[in-house]
Design brief:
17% helix; single chain; Metallo-beta-lactamase, Chain A
């Protein structure tokens, strides 16, 4: 029974202002990244675009888990270049703690620069 509560989407989709999807095919046929924007700040949630840290250094390295190695490499190159140029935060699923950071371009390679993590929980205790 179609209740109308779930809607599928393809390609780039804006769900509401400040939240959208973009296709990132290669690792899997329907891989999608999600972008959250607020007041000029942006975070892009990459999921499986990068599966191991060495793919940031060399986006042409593919794994046997990539369903289309050439498309996966092209997607990595495109997203790494965009993140390095635009300077927004990325949230890849498989990079080291804290899992949020920036991409810096170093010649023809890229570098993962994690955001600073501050555990201020002790400061809030009485």
């Amino acid at each position: 029974m179609d209740s109308g509560q779930v809607q599928t989407f393809e390609d780039a989709t804006e769900f509401f202002p400040g939240f959208r999807s973009e296709p990132a095919h290669g690792h899997t046929a329907g891989l999608t990244v999600y972008v959250l924007e607020n007041g000029g700040d942006e975070v892009m949630f990459w999921g499986d675009v990068v599966n191991i840290a060495v793919q940031v250094d060399d986006p042409d390295i593919s794994l046997r888990f990539d369903s289309d190695a050439a498309a996966a490499a092209a997607t990595r190159r495109r997203l790494l270049e965009d993140a390095a140029t635009q300077g927004y935060i990325v949230a890849p699923a498989h990079l080291p703690f804290p899992g949020l950071g920036h991409i810096r371009k170093d010649g023809h390679a890229y570098t993962w620069v994690p955001v600073d993590y501050l555990n201020n929980a002790q400061e809030k205790q009485p």
